[in-house]
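Below is the record:
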Amino acid sequence: MRIVVGLSGGVDSSVAAWLLKQAGHEVIGIFMRNWHDESVIIDNECPWIDDANDAMLVASHLGIPFQVLDLSEQYKERIVDYMFEEYACGRTPNPDVLCNREIKFDLFLQSALDLGAECVATGHYCRKGTTEVDGKTVHQLLAGVDNNKDQSYFLCQLTQAQLSQAVFPIGELTKPEVREIAEKIDLPTAKKKDSQGLCFIGKVRLPEFLQQQLEPKEGHIIEISAELAESKREQSEQPMEPLKWQRDDGQVVGAHQGAHFFTVGQRRGIQVGGKPEPLFVIEKNVEENILYVGQGENHPGLMRSALRIQLDEAHWIRTDLALKDGESTDDYHFRIRYRQPLQGGKLERKGNALFIWFDDPQSGIAAGQFAAWYRGDECIGSGVIAS
C-alpha cells in the first residue's frame, strides 16, 4: 500500500514512517510548510526550516522519497485568520484541533491522494478501530495506549471519511517505546525534544502574535471576591452560563493591554502582585475591555457545572450515535482540554443545543474551546463551547 506520512521533523512521525516501511508499505514522506514568520517564535524554538531539515534527514535515513508541501497560504486562511476572529470576539480558539480537521486530514490528505496514496499517516498517539452498524463499516477514533500522551482530543473533529483514510502507526506504543525504537535504529530525531506551542508554528509570544491584527488597548482589571462569586453562583438559575460581572461588582486592581489577549483560567500575564493568592481570569468583557479576576485556582468564579454547545457547532464522529431532541445519556465522559482526565457527566440535547452536565464542577471553561465526549476509550464527538 502506498502511504504518505506527514513527517514533522519530530521523533513520533519518524518512527511512524519506519514502522510502515517495516510492514512492507510504499512510504512517502512529506513535510508541511505552513508558517513563515519567525518573529513571534520564542527563542527560535521549532522554526520550520530546522524541522524540514530534520524531516529530510529522517527520510534519507529510512530511504524513502521526500517532499516539502507549502500550505502556508491555506493555513493562514483557515487557521490563523480563524484565531484572530475568535480572539477579537472574546472567544478562546483551539487551532490544533482545527488544524487537524482543515489541514492534515483535508488539504494534506488530498495532496497525498493526488500522489496515488491510499491513506495518510501521522505520529499521533491514538488508534483507529472499526465496528459494524446496520451492515455498514463505521470507523472509530480510539485513545492511544499511552494515557499520558493520548492525542485523540486533537482529532475530535475528524469525519468518517477522514478517518477511513488515516493511519496512526504509533497508537499502540508508549512514548518511551517510541524513543527506544528511534535510538535503536539511529534516527536523527531520536533525542529531539517534543515540539510545543501552536500547530506548525511553534512556541509563540501569543500577545505579539495577536497584535499582528489586534490592537493593544488599555483596560481595567477588576477583582471579584470569592464570597460574591459563591453567592451569585448559588442564586444563578443557569449553571451553564458565565456569571456576567459588572464594573461595580469588584475593585480595580490593575490594568491590562487588551482583554482579547486573555482567556478564562489564565494566570500568567496579569501582572498584579501583592495578593495572598495568585490571580486568575474568571471572565472577560471584550466590548468594555475589562478583565475580571479572582484569587486562587479554586475561586468560585472559575468553576462551572455545565456548558452549552450550539447544535450547528456540534460534531459527531459516530453519526449513528447522535442524540435526537429530548434525548440524553450518562454513558459518556468528557474532556475540555488536552491531557485533562476524563470527567463524568451527562450529555443532553434540548432543541438547537447540546448541554454537558458535569458530575463535578470544572475550572476554566472558555467559550470557543472544544469539548469532546468519549465512551470508554472511543471519542464519539465534540463541539465548540458556546458558554
Observations:
- The CA atoms of residues 334 and 373 lie 5 Å apart.
- Residues 303-384 form a domain with the Elongation Factor Tu (Ef-tu); domain 3 fold (CATH 2.40.30.10).
- The radius of gyration is 22 Å.
- The mean pLDDT is 92.
